[in-house]
Design a protein that fits this description.
Layout: H1 2-27, E1 35-40, H2 46-61, E2 65-70, H3 75-87, E3 92-96, H4 103-113, E4 118-122, E5 140-144, H5 146-160, H6 162-166, E6 171-176, H7 183-197, E7 201-207, H8 215-227, E8 237-240, H9 243-255, E9 262-265, H10 269-275, E10 281-286, H11 289-304, H12 308-312, E11 317-318, E12 324-327, E13 330-333, H13 334-338, H14 366-371
Parallel strand pairs: 1-2, 1-3, 3-4, 4-5, 5-12, 6-7, 6-8, 8-9, 9-10
Antiparallel strand pairs: 10-13, 11-12
Helix pairs in contact: 2-11, 5-7, 8-9
């Protein structure tokens, strides 16, 4: 009997040891010691600095080393930086805002030359020379829900003019939009255009900055010139595809002492400060840019670990579009911003809708949750086994 008991105890100890070792192995980050980079086509801006900061912090929490490179709206700089990072032995790259006319072919060639490299993209569509939509095996494409951002803003404008809606009269909008510049703007145009087609809005004119390295000042000049060509009361509202452009529009409106309301996509601390002045800037449609950086790093890390099933399990994944994920949007209103004190993007969740801080759209797994335990960017996610 003693031998039986001893054997049973030994078996229990061995099982416990094996279980403990298994749990330890499952919780260890498989990307520890890897090197990643965030490579952004455009110049630095507040929202992309937030992205970079969160991307870097997430990478470091997962045991990785991370770098950020902004490319000053230069196609050649974007391509060269990606190639240089690949040559330098980076294990993963999050590349942002690649141009649709070359991104698919270029990145395909890069991965053929460096098959061990993992790439995830943001605001980068893949099409061949004939305009046909393409995918790249193993590359996850990340986007904001741009069409939804655009539609949310149009709805905000329509709500300002209920009498016109009751009479089936279109609201007259001056649009800040730049076609064939970056794919995100084109996707936003699709959401905006549905309301044009339905006759609910009328676009009086479109404007965009000439200088992308100084978009605020350039947009201010363009807005002053165009707004000045309309009589008082002709423009019901101004719809802006991007908040950096919107800051220029806001400056123009204040210079002109105009009360025309405006709305915009994206948000940063300066936007919040201008909205809090209680003047023209009525709403932003946005995503949480701190969460966005973490989201992108999570996706890239899971690619590097070969855990595509965990990526596909996320609510933001859309199998019908290929390896495609979209970040949900939320509207932040002037009233919300003015309802609190010293509101910034760091504490915006105090006054914004709950959706702003919700991170349930992100992919995850056991080792990732263990490595990121204690971070507080939004709602707490339940770890997958």
């Amino acid at each position: 009997m003693r031998k039986v008991i001893a054997l049973c105890m030994a078996a229990i100890l061995i099982a416990a040891c094996l279980t403990g070792c298994s749990q330890k192995n499952n919780s260890k980050s498989p990307v520890e010691g890897k090197k990643v980079a965030y490579i952004m086509y455009m110049s630095s801006s507040p929202i992309f600095e937030l992205w970079s900061e969160s991307f870097t912090e997430t990478a470091e929490d997962l045991g990785m080393e991370a770098d950020t490179f902004f490319c000053g709206d230069s196609d050649e700089e974007w391509k060269d930086r990606i190639l240089q990072c690949a040559k330098d032995g980076y294990d993963g790259l999050l590349v942002s805002h690649g141009r649709v006319d070359y991104a698919w072919e270029f990145l395909t060639d890069v991965l053929e030359e460096y098959p061990g490299l993992k790439i995830a993209t943001f605001d980068t569509s893949f099409r061949d020379k004939d305009g046909e939509t393409k995918t790249i095996d193993g590359v996850v494409q990340l986007f904001q829900r741009d069409s939804g951002l655009a539609a949310d803003l149009v709805e905000e404008i329509l709500a300002m003019y209920p009498d016109k809606a009751a009479k089936n009269e279109p609201v007259n909008i001056l649009q800040v939009q730049e076609e064939n510049y970056i794919i995100a703007f084109d996707r936003r145009q699709a959401g905006y255009q549905r309301y044009e087609t339905a006759g609910r809005i009328r676009t009086l004119g479109r404007m965009a900055p000439e200088d992308h390295l100084d978009p605020v000042s350039s947009m201010r000049e363009a807005a002053e010139d165009m707004i000045g060509t309309y009589k008082d009361g002709e423009i019901d509202a101004i719809w802006c595809c991007y908040d950096a452009y919107a800051r220029g529009v806001y400056q123009a409106l204040r210079e002109l002492d105009s009360d025309i309301p405006m709305v915009s996509v994206d948000i940063c601390d300066e936007d919040i400060q201008l909205m809090a002045e209680g003047k023209n800037w009525k709403a932003c449609a946005t995503t949480n840019w701190t969460l966005n950086g973490e989201f992108a790093c999570r996706v890239l890390a899971l690619e590097m670990a070969g855990q595509y099933d965990d990526i596909k399990a996320a609510s933001s994944y859309d199998e019908s579009l290929g390896m495609w994920m979209e970040i949900p949007s939320v509207v932040v209103t002037q009233e919300q911003v003015m309802s609190g004190r010293d509101i910034t993007v760091r504490n915006l969740s105090d006054v914004a809708d709950d959706a702003y801080a919700d991170d349930s759209f992100m992919p995850s797994c056991g080792w990732m949750e263990s490595a990121l335990k204690g971070r507080s960017n939004g709602s707490v996610m339940a770890a997958k086994p």
